[in-house]
DNA sequence: TTAGGATATTCGGATAACCGAATAACGTGA
DNA sequence: TCACGTTATTCGGTTATCCGAATATCCTAA
């Protein structure tokens, strides 16, 4: 069974993504490093505001910067994560619709599986479970 | 060049994910359909609150329910999206660190690429661009 | 039809997010 | 050093989110 994710941390990370301006910034940075003035002309937001959002993204460890003279060139410090996530929200999946019957069947199937997992008594093929690690 | 995503809509979608309780709910639903009382005993939250979060998830079209008597069995109506996203935030990527020199090189490379793309004068293989509908 | 279980909604107060304006901090070239 | 360009931070008002409490709605069995 998949280990439950750390919802607190994960939610904080996702919150950093959950703003149109921040998404736009990440999108721009996915195309290449940029400094704040670059972004000012690419986005419908002002300098201070962009800086504020960059602070949020920095805190979430999604971006970092390299100082180049008076400029700060921002870049994605977890590019895979950002690109994959942008890709995910971009694609659209057809909505699933389920009937009560399907749900019942699904629940029963799950219940049986849990049964089996919690009571592996009928051990043909000995006790030597290969521990997952 | 990748089309820019609809940041407004995408941010709204991501906002639905950005709460620990909602993430936990989605995680539970990823394991199988559940009704509210099921979740009450799985999560550290009360009925009304869970219902409120479910309303948010419903509005974001992440979950739907099938009525079964007095019960409402909730399920993921975009299971791929939810599972992939949960998978993404779970894995951790080493943080990239860049030097100003790398950044400069990166910017130059990008600039040259844009040059090439915007000035495709040297047209061997004629003008017949296949228009994308 | 009514009681009771399951779920949703409304309300209100607390907290957090957001953003513009002003200003601070920093780096560079003169 | 100084002025200026670039970016960050602080402040304050507005709006949004969150959650408990109370209550409403819906369903079913008796």
In short:
The structure is a homodimer of 133-residue chains. Chain A is mainly alpha-helical and 133 residues long.
Report on the architecture of this protein.
- Two copies of one chain form a homodimer.
- Chain A is mainly alpha-helical and 133 residues long.
- The first copy, chain A, is built from six helices and three strands.
- The first copy, chain A, has a three-stranded antiparallel sheet with strand order 1-3-2.
- In chain A, strand 2 and strand 3 form a beta hairpin.
- In chain A, helix 2 crosses helix 5 (79-90).
- The longest helix of chain A has 19 residues, at 100-118.
- Chain A is elongated, with a radius of gyration of 23 Å.
- Residues 126-133 of chain A have low confidence and may be disordered.
- Chains A and B meet through helix 1, helix 2, strand 2, strand 3 and helix 5 of A and helix 1, helix 2, strand 2, strand 3 and helix 5 of B.
- Chain A binds a DNA duplex (30 and 30 nucleotides) through helix 4.
Output the radius of gyration of chain A: 23 Å
Shape of chain A: elongated
Structural category of chain A: mainly alpha
How much helical structure, as a percent, in the residues of chain A? 40-55%
What labels describe this entry?
homodimer; 133 residues; mainly alpha; three-stranded antiparallel β-sheet; 6 helices; 3 strands; elongated; disordered C terminus; DNA-binding
Compile the SSE list and pairings.
Two copies of one chain form a homodimer.
Chain A: H1 7-17, H2 20-30, E1 34-35, H3 36-42, H4 47-59, E2 63-68, E3 71-76, H5 79-90, H6 100-118
Antiparallel strand pairs in A: 1-3, 2-3
Chain A binds a DNA duplex (30 and 30 nucleotides) through residues 15, 19, 35-37, 45-52, 54-55, 67, 69-72.
């Amino acid at each position: 069974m998949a280990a439950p994710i750390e919802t607190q941390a994960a939610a904080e990370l996702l919150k950093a993504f959950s703003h149109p301006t921040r998404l736009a910034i990440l999108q721009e940075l996915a195309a290449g490093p940029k400094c704040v003035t670059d972004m000012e002309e690419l986005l419908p937001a002002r300098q201070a505001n962009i800086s504020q959002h960059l602070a949020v993204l920095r805190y979430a460890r999604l971006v970092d910067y390299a100082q180049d003279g008076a400029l700060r060139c921002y870049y994605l410090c977890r590019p895979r994560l950002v690109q994959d996530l942008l890709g995910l929200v971009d694609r659209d999946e057809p909505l699933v619709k389920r009937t009560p019957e399907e749900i019942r069947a699904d629940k029963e199937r799950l219940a049986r599986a849990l049964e089996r997992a919690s009571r592996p008594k009928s051990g043909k093929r000995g006790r030597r479970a290969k521990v997952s690690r």
